[in-house]
Design brief:
With about 150 residues, the protein is mainly α. About 55% of the residues lie in helices and about 10% in strands. The chain has 7 helices and 3 strands; from the N terminus they run E-H-H-E-H-H-H-H-E-H. The chain has a 3-stranded parallel sheet with strand order 2-1-3. The longest helix has 19 residues, at about 130-145. The model is unreliable at about 140-145 (pLDDT under 50).
């Protein structure tokens, strides 16, 4: 059986490597992420330059830990279709203009045929209320590309 392909967004890496939080919800996300990480070998994991750019921001020690976590993971290459899909997301208002990086993550995962996009971003990505618009855009773009 072929392993599922998982695109890791920077929020996953951040929760994986963060110092234990005093906030119970954040701590639960940290523990859930660490538990999932122990079984990561069941998947083919991928990141992108967008992820690496995001995880090196902030506290130097925390950034170092995040960067170490993705050592050896393959990067999804840039594809011009990613830029087109990001623009479609913005034009259709599936993502607001101030969420270009989030739109790029979804576009990268879609263009490269990832089975999963693993994220804790519930504002623009893993938000069930807003997901319908994203799927509609992905469907329209994929139908356009099949013609």
């Amino acid at each position: 059986m072929q392993r599922k392909r998982v695109y890791l967004k920077s929020s996953t890496i951040s929760y994986l490597t963060a110092w234990p939080s005093k906030d119970i919800l954040k701590l639960a996300k940290q523990e859930s992420t660490k538990k999932w990480w122990k079984g990561r070998h069941r998947y083919d994991l991928f990141v992108s330059k967008v992820v690496s750019d995001e995880i090196i921001r902030g506290d130097k020690e925390a950034a170092r830990l995040r960067a170490e976590a993705i050592i050896g993971l393959p990067y999804l290459p840039h594809d011009p279709l990613v830029d087109s899909l990001v623009q479609s997301f913005i034009d259709s208002k599936a993502f607001p203009r101030n969420a270009l990086e989030d739109a790029r993550h979804v576009a990268l995962a879609a263009v490269h045929g990832m089975d999963y996009l693993l994220t804790w971003n519930q504002t623009h990505i893993a938000n069930p209320v807003k997901m319908r618009g994203k799927y509609e855009v992905l469907f329209e773009v994929s139908c356009w590309n099949l013609r």
